[in-house]
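testing teh design pipeline on a random one, pls ignore if ur not involved
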């Protein structure tokens, strides 16, 4: 195979959130974000020399992305806290559990599991799984894997719910430091990738230490990663002999490569302009699901300009959510007036009372007048008690669609006396952490494990370092802690709704869209499942005619 020379500069995910997930692509993600996740990708132009679509009798699939193949090393626990998430795209790694298309955990490397008491769980592992180096996966090997991850990974260190791990044959036992009712969801996080750790391994040697249907052949960060079929895989044998994960410079390069049959997939499509172009091409199929990723404004409630809930609501009333989704993102997003996506059982707005349920610029103007704001010095900017409504909005420079939305918001706010300065930057993380903002426009994967408490702990808990806007609610903190130990799904969803209502009443954040996760496929590909978690891409079922 000729090596593809399509390059980009260092890319970062989601998600925060996932990426926690979490996250990815063109905005800030979570935990390194994060996430989830937030995510910030910076693409540079590159020159293209294509990989051959097939070689002899080999079945070769080429998958392209402008930002999702972005791990710097192949060690899932080292370096960036989301390496496990990124590596999961390659079809080489697996966890004990996998989330399905409804964000529900399903057994993956476990046969069964049971809760012994409030703090003790027992997992019976599959007995037919070998690591890529030929060693058998046992409970002891998974124990050593998790212990290594906890030792060297910052996000795993923060997972204080794991108190002790013991192993007996294929029985893995986890004792928790507190009640963890949704442990299968927790272990679905790619943070808990299962890899060989019985002894020190050298991830620089090009070898593969995972359990998936493909194994690593070669890795070049932000350039090209090649995997080959694992003939000793415990499940159904993979369809392709070889799969190339190729990093492309930008959307134009990706579209051209897909049209020229140099790649078979764009994972995912980032911009509305690219979506519009691809939707008109006969040889391309678009696969769309609504993910848990939210796009939102985070207000600095500690600053003067956004300390008044009336000001925050007025800003929320000036966002053209429908126009953003339809005209800017070309339906790559769905409008949001709530917090979580409709795709989640605790999402949507049907059980919420909305202060803002439509765009209403005149209503926003009236709200500010009633709240006592006026242009006292005639400079066109409203003020009150010596504070002018001039604000700094920060946003990732590659989030082109959201920047367009912010520019539109800037125009609408100017008509009601608010001066909004939109400042794109390579990464918003340092500015957010320093509190050097009035508004942050960001994107997070909000439910990477299918539960509401992930994002709530990240953004709504008063003691979270990711709650840079300073939102505080004793009741919300109490509910978040109760959700963490609740076992009844109905109870969890009800408490999650109450937290959402508190946040909306305070307008601590304004969620204006949820991301549709769009993948562009050559019509020669079959067997692809677009999973809204943003965790998975290649599996044993992906095939090419």
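output:
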């Amino acid at each position: 195979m000729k090596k593809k020379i399509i390059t980009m500069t260092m890319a970062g995910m989601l998600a925060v959130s996932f990426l926690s997930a979490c996250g990815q692509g063109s905005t800030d993600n979570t935990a390194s974000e994060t996430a989830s996740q937030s995510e910030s990708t910076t693409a540079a132009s590159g020159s293209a020399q294509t990989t051959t679509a097939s070689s002899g009798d080999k079945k070769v699939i080429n998958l392209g992305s402008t930002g999702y193949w972005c791990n710097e090393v192949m060690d899932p626990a080292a370096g960036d806290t989301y390496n496990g998430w990124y590596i999961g795209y390659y079809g080489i790694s697996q966890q004990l559990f996998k989330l399905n298309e409804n964000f529900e955990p399903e057994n993956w490397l476990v046969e069964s599991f049971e809760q012994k008491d409030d703090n003790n769980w027992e997992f019976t592992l599959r007995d037919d799984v070998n690591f890529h180096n030929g060693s058998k996966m046992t409970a002891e090997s998974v124990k050593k894997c998790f212990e290594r991850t906890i030792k060297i990974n910052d996000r795993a260190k923060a997972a204080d719910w794991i108190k002790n791990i013991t192993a007996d044959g294929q029985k893995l036992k986890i004792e928790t430091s507190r009640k963890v009712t949704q442990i299968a969801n927790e272990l679905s996080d790619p943070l808990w990738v299962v890899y060989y750790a019985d002894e020190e391994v050298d991830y620089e040697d090009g070898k593969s230490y995972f359990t998936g249907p493909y194994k690593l052949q070669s890795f070049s960060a932000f350039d090209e990663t090649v995997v080959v079929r694992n003939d000793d895989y415990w499940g159904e044998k993979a369809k392709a002999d070889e799969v190339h994960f190729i990093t492309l410079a930008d959307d134009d390069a990706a579209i051209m490569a897909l049209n020229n049959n140099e790649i078979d997939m764009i994972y995912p499509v980032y911009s509305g302009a690219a979506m519009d172009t691809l939707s008109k091409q006969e040889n391309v199929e678009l696969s769309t699901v609504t993910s848990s990723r939210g796009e939102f404004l985070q207000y600095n409630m500690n600053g003067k300009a956004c300390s008044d809930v009336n000001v925050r609501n007025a800003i929320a009333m000036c966002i053209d959510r429908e126009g953003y989704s339809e005209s800017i993102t070309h339906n790559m997003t769905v409008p949001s007036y709530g917090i979580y996506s409709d795709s989640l059982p605790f999402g949507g707005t049907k059980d919420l009372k909305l202060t803002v349920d439509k765009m209403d610029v005149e209503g926003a103007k009236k709200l500010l007048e009633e709240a006592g704001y006026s242009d006292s010095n005639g400079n066109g900017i409203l003020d009150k008690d010596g504070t002018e409504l001039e604000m700094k909005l920060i946003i990732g420079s590659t989030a082109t669609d959201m920047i367009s939305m912010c520019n539109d918001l800037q125009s609408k706010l100017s008509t009601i006396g608010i001066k909004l300065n939109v400042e794109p930057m390579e990464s918003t993380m340092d500015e957010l952490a320093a509190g050097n903002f009035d508004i942050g426009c960001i994107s997070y994967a909000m439910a990477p494990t299918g539960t509401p408490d992930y994002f709530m702990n990240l953004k709504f808990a008063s003691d979270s370092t990711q709650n840079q806007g300073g939102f505080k609610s004793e009741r919300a903190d109490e509910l978040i802690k109760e959700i963490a130990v609740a076992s009844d799904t109905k109870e969890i969803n009800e408490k999650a709704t109450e937290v959402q209502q508190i946040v909306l009443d305070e307008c601590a954040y304004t969620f204006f869209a949820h991301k549709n996760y769009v993948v562009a496929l050559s019509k020669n590909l079959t067997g692809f499942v677009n999973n809204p978690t943003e965790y998975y891409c290649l599996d044993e079922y992906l095939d090419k005619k």
